[in-house]
Amino acid sequence: MNKDIITVTSPLLPDLGDFNELLKDIWDRKWITNNGHYHHLLESALAEYLHVPYVSLFTNGTLPLITALQALRITGEVITTPYSFVATTHALWWNGIKPVFVDIDEETCCIDPNKIEAAITPKTTAIMPVHVYGRPCDTEAIQQIADKYGLKVIYDAAHAFGVEQNGKSVLNAGDISTLSFHATKVFNTIEGGAMIMHDAKMKQRIDYLKNFGFAGETEVVAPGINSKMDEMRAAYGILNLKQVDAAIEARHQVAIKYREALRNVEGVTIWEDVFGIKHNYSYFPIFVDTEKYGMSRDDLYFKMKDQGILGRRYFYPLISDFSTYRGLESASKENLPVASKMAEEVICLPMHHALNEDDIQRVLDCIRK
Ligand code: T4K
User: Fold this and answer.
1) Contact (Cβ atoms closer than 8 angstroms) between residue 72 and residue 64
2) 281 in Cβ contact with 256 (< 8 Å)
3) Given this model, what pLDDT does residue 1 score?
4) Ligand 1, residues at Cβ distance < 6 Å
5) What atom in ligand 1 is closest to the CA of residue 192?
6) Which atom, in ligand 1's list, is nearest to the CA of 132?
7) In angstroms, rounded to a whole number, what is the distance separating the alpha carbons of residues 80 and 102?
8) How far is ligand 1, taken at its centre, from the CA of residue 61, in Å?
9) pTM for this prediction
């Protein structure tokens, strides 16, 4: 057995020499956090790269979710998906909001717009969908429902860095979108995140909120929090932004090889690229049908593990199955048949810029044999 471990992802790291140069500059400036030089540079560079009007940097991808709900004064109930990382629902809970889970669409694993209206009650104030694996939600259908019922839409776009649909960034959909720049993401700042908003007024409000609500030395305009990105991580982000296109292209090449080899494997469903979408290849999910494949998802998952191939079952268990949430009415399996099925079948294969031919072959051999 080959003992080299192949992990589901591996962080994109800037050149250490280049990073040292920027660190030296930060040391010289003696300004290490609180809206510094590199913070400004990264916000502008990201707005340009992502084709969005305003970016506000955060210290991770969870705090912009929590802060967005505060900024839009969301209360009561929010419709969301159970098929995500647990931070999506936690952000609601931290705001004292009741999550209402709605089932997902099998083609995208994103919230199914056809099932949203039935979950709306007089207490519903917003929808919080997730662009799972970077596949865009049906943003038009979701916006139509939101407009009809006067609801806000906050997209958890943690996986959707750089994703475009018909030439437009998906990050411009809804009222606010949030990103994660965690080490495991396509673009990372070690820990980090961002919020995308449409107007200068909201950008200003968010910038206050992430700095304790300070609107000047002696004025606090809201009960804000501290979620500012420091200068070291902003500088690291500037360097990573320069190589992220190459990293995405390297991921694309891995996806091509996986697809060629797995397209005709009985019982294994893979996703193809969708016309009109600029994908970021952040994850490569496969879905295993036990009967047709002749082995269950978990058996394949543990077989891979035994061979040092650390795929991950993102997103199993469903958020609605965690003890914190499973008492909610909307968390029942009967309410979430598609999400339950996908969570039982999914394995995210290793997918990152540094996978080599041998790694890819080992993954494929393990699945095909
Ligand atoms: N919304 C959504 C939809 C999200 O997916 C996430 C985060 C968030 C919100 C919240 O954003 P953040 O607050 O995290 O910025 C990981 C990440 O910690 C998490 O950011 C991510 N989603 C989630 C899907 O995955 P784990 O527990 O699976 O990570 P971990 O530590 O097991 O790492 C996975 C693999 O990555 C390792 O096996 C090896 C590799 N790795 C990881 C790290 C941290 C490295 O090679 N180097 C590293 O430094 O949660």
Assistant:
1) no
2) no
3) 44
4) 7-11, 60-62, 84-85, 87-88, 130, 156, 158-159, 180, 182-184, 193, 310, 312, 314
5) 15
6) 3
7) 6
8) 10
9) 0.98
List, in sequence order, every residue forming a beta bridge with 216; answer none if it has no partner: none
Q: How far is the CA of 62 from the centre of ligand 1 (A)?
A: 12
Identity at 212, one-letter amino acid code: F
Query: pLDDT band at residue 3, thresholds of 50, 70 and 90?
Result: low
- Per residue in 187-207, pLDDT tens? 999 999 999 999 999 999 999
Verify cis geometry, omega within 30 degrees of 0, for the bond prior to 317.
yes
**Tens of pLDDT, residues 4-41:** 999 999 999 999 999 999 999 999 999 999 999 999 99
Instruction: Say how far residue 327 (Cα) sits from the centre of its chain.
Output: 26
- 228-257 tens-digit pLDDT: 999 999 999 999 999 999 999 999 999 999
For the CA of 181, the nearest atom of ligand 1: 15
Strands 309-310 and 6-7: parallel
Average pLDDT of every residue of the chain: 97
Strand blocks (E) in the chain: 6-7, 54-58, 77-80, 98-101, 124-128, 152-156, 164-165, 168-169, 176-180, 193-197, 268-270, 277-278, 284-288, 309-310, 346-349
